Amino acid sequence: MLFLQLLLNGLQTGAIYALTAAGFALIFGATKIFHVAHGTAFTIAGYVFLFAWGAGWPSWLGVLASIAAAMVFGIVMERLVYRPIQRHEGSFFTVFVAAFGVSIVVQNIIGMIAGRGFATVDTPLSFSAEILPEIFVAPMLWISLATAGVLFVALTLFLTRHPAGVALRALAQNPDLIRTYGLSSNGLSVLAFAIGSALAAPAAIVTAMTTGLNEAIGHHVMLISIAATIVGGIGSLRGAALAGMMLGIAESLALTVVDTQWAEAVSFLVLFGFIIFRPAGIFGVTQTR
Amino acid sequence: MTGIALRSENLSRSFGGVQAVAGVSLSLPEGQVTALVGPNGAGKTTTFNLITGNLRADSGTAEIRGKPIMGLKPWQVARLGVARSYQDLRLFTHMTVRENVLAATETSSWFWQPGGRRAQQQREHRAESAMEATGLTALADARAVDLAYAERKFLSMARILAAEADIWLLDEPASGLDLSSRIRFGTLLKDAQARGVAICLIEHNLDVVVELSNRIAFLDQGKVLAEGDPQTILKDPALAAIYFGDRPQEAA
Amino acid sequence: MTAFLINLATLAAISGILASTLNFIVGYAGIFSVAHAVFFGLGAYGGAQVALLLVPNPFLACLVAAVIAGGLSLCLALPALRVRGEYFVAASLGLQMVAATLFAELKPLTGGIGGLVGIPRPEILGTIVPVLPLALAALALILWATARLQRGTFGRTLQSIRDADSAAESLGKNVNAAKTLAVVFACAGAGVAGALYALHLSFINVESFTLDQSIQIMAMVIIGGAGTLWGPLVGAVLLLSLPAVISFIPFIPPTEVGAVQQIIYGTAMTLLMIFRPAGLLGDMSKGKSTA
User: Fold this and answer.
1) Contact between residue A140 and residue A206 where contact means Cβ atoms under 8 Å apart
2) In chain B, what residues touch C152 (CB-CB under 8 Å)?
3) Does C162 contact chain A (CB < 8 Å)?
4) Does C114 touch chain A (CB under 8 A)?
5) Average pLDDT over residues A265-279
6) Do the Cβ atoms of B224 and B217 come closer than 8 Å?
């Protein structure tokens, strides 16, 4: 029974991880930018929702504001940080350090404004009910799974049907196109950041309504997104989402064997193992170094 | 008769069902320039990679003066006297020309090189003469990334000269060089030949092949179809058909 | 006031060791580790245990710390040999997270969250010695060694591997051996810094060995200028004096000093990367894209 309960908990965490990881993977695939400030988009989205809720806004408006905030953050990062660095041929590490700097700044500003420590949105949706003997499930589980499912279908449709989506996929599969297209991929790059960042918003809202947010949560989200993207196989959205789901479930199921403190370490052991033994990930193509 | 520096027997390698190299047997005699000729995708660069240990062969053997080299790591093969150049050069872009060439003389991976000050002076001397031979002395302090195209090609050659290898595997070393650079390059090869270096080069331009090499190995679909002196091979209509058949824009 | 300055100078020397050893693998070998605090921590726990269980001899503590950190640095060398770029950063992130959990959970060795307390003051021949001269001596020694290596043939080997590893290997360089050697050297140095840190504070816990610390060391290197000799040292002094400077600004409430400090160094990291990616002391023409 404990197993089933943990599996259900894992599904909820997994849905959140899958969404954020897909966003990260989309951005990395299309732009080859290792967007370590992706967790920051998540934090911003979560706190915007928190404030909207606290200010008594209707929840749909809060959701929209949260998505908008994440998108704006993503686009601003692309325009003001990544673009200038890439213009002077900065290495991937220059990009990494710059983005990490932003995440530190935002984390501390949020801590100063909103206070440090956990903050949650209280809603009846996160009250658990006993659906089977000893199995407690809150409506949020179904909402988060449904949200993740719907968004993936929408994303898949966009990436396969819409011309801009197809172009994004082409960029992800053939990085040389970025070089050949050069400036014409500018618009696409902004699009990738907008969509990728927007995907973090629903995950952040769900987190705000269940386990709660703190100002440093972006770190954790960023690390999980990177882990899922690499385990899933760089360039594969489906892989990232699936790996995110798997990491969520693995973290939760690991509790049957180890204490809570080890849960996060499980994800990183998986990541470490993959990098050493199968760096191409589950769905990636094995490349020679 | 001179000895065979490097010999391969039946080297084979496939990538996911595609047989890139299908039993290449090749000998590189000392003091001779062997041109590896063939249409695109014939397996020329793959053959190099199999010999140098950058790729593992599915089957076949290769030996340097009788010493088997299959299964050795690239740096082990290099220490047996094989130096190679890459089509994309792979210079040490952020280092100066002098540092690039010096690096080629230093093989130890330890904190310092063996031999102390004397050996150090000898290596520096080798580096200076390699730069002189390639006409790069004036550019010694320029970074590789700032060089012009032909200079980069010569820097790649300078590294090989400084490495003092006696087997050279050169991947399109002359492509894109203008006539005067090509003549200078030809002199480098002649000098090395005179010292008994066994040279193998990949080259697409058949005029350059005739100009530089005295043996040809014709590769197609992963096999050596013919081996011999340039005149005979290039006059063979069957081979010409294969060679130009895959590149209609040149056959026209 | 003097106690304050001595403390600051000791911590600056220790950070200087951390930054220059990290600079060695980042600036010369292109191994972008964000797990340097792990080896700092290993050295700190190792050195502390030597002082607690055996003798508070600083030389023995540093030696043990260097051996432990250098030995376990193979965990970092392994991914460095297999992957590079983003993949390696991700691997070192993973290593950092797992190690922080281990530090917090392996109570018998690390004292768990509570850490190790009451680490005795260092003694040489029965006399208690302050850590500052030891730390300065270690810093000088490590700076001298890194400078020799960086400017010598080993530095050239690492740079050639960084720029084109396949070409370096086809020129006879054992790439794996050189990379491993560089990682072991840098991590052993971080271990020495850890032992000195434990002896200086006489109390350590996992807080000092987390990702935040790794990033701070990285920031010292980057802000000062990766691939330069003095840059990391300048970065270390700048970042360490930041809290002191901020605490003198009257209108910032003391509870926010930490946050303001973080905001300043986060901003500095981002702005430098956009406008001066080679760092304060870096040569712009040379440091542009070392990866």
Assistant:
1) yes
2) 111-112
3) no
4) no
5) 84
6) yes
Chains contacting C (3+ CB pairs below 8 angstroms): A, B
Q: Which residues of C touch B95 (CB under 8 A)?
A: 156, 159-160, 163
C55 touches chain B (CB under 8 A): no
Of B52, B75, B99, the CB nearest to C175: B75
- Contact map slice: C 235-274 vs A, CB within 8 A: 256, 259-260, 262-263, 265-271, 273-274
Residue C81 has pLDDT above 70, yes or no: yes
The closest alpha carbon to C159, from C35, C24, C19, C281, belongs to C24
**pLDDT reported for residue C287:** 42
Question: Model confidence over B178-228: pLDDT tens digits?
Answer: 989 999 999 999 999 999 999 999 998 888 898 889 899 999 888 998 888
- The CATH architecture to which B1-81+165-177+194-252 belongs is 3-Layer(aba) Sandwich (3.40)
In degrees, rounded to 5, the angle at the alpha carbon of residue C187 between the alpha carbons of residues C183 and C193 is 155
Q: Note whether C257 and C246 are within 8 A (CB).
A: yes
SS3 B95: coil
pLDDT-above-70 percentage for chain C: 97
Encoded amino acid at C272, one letter: L
pTM as predicted: 0.90
Q: How many CB atoms lie within 10 A of CB C47?
A: 33
Q: Classify C204 as helix, strand or coil.
A: strand
What region, left, alpha or beta, does residue C256 occupy, with left being phi > 0 and alpha being psi -120 to 50 degrees? alpha
Taking the CA atoms of C44, C50, C55 and C59 in sequence, report the sign of the dihedral they define.
Answer: negative
Type of residue numbered C113: I
Candidates B109, B124, B170: best to mutate against C (most CBs of C within 10 A) is: B109
Which residue, among C93, C217, C255, C261, would best test binding to A if mutated, counting the most A CBs under 10 Å from its CB?
Answer: C93
Residues of chain B contacting C185 with CB distance shorter than 8 Å: 111
DSSP class of residue B143 equals B
pLDDT confidence tier of residue A289, bands split at 50, 70 and 90? very low
β-strand partners of B67: B64
Per-domain residue ranges of chain B: 1-81+165-177+194-252, 92-164
Q: Which of B120, B114, B101 is nearest to B162 (CA)?
A: B101
**Closest of C274, C144, C142, C273 to residue C218, by C-alpha:** C273
Task: Please report, for residues A162, C29, C211, the alpha-carbon distance to residue C25 in angstroms, rounded to integers and kept in the order given.
Answer: 45, 5, 18
Which of A281-285, B72-76, C18-22 is least confident?
A: A281-285
Per-domain residue ranges for chain A?
22-215
Per-residue pLDDT at B247 exceeds 50:
no
- What is the per-residue pLDDT for B249? 45
| CB contact set of A60 (below 8 Å; sequence gap of 6+) | none
ipTM of the complex: 0.90
Per residue in C27-39, is it b (16+ CB within 10 Å) or e — as a string?
A: bbbbbbbbbbbbb
Q: What share of chain A in percent tops pLDDT 70?
A: 93
Q: Quick one: DSSP state of residue B3?
A: P
Percent of chain B beyond pLDDT 70?
A: 96
Confidence of residue C85 (pLDDT cuts 50, 70, 90): confident
B57 sits in the region (left: phi over 0; alpha: psi -120 to 50; else beta) called beta
CB contact under 8 A, A108 and C222: no
Verify whether the Cβ–Cβ distance B90 to C157 is below 8 Å: no
User: Bigger pLDDT: A146 or B91?
Assistant: B91
Alpha helices by DSSP H, C54-174: 58-72, 74-82, 86-105, 107-110, 131-151, 153-163, 165-170
> How many Cβ atoms from other residues are within 10 Å of residue C184's Cβ?
20
Average pLDDT value over all residues in chain B? 90
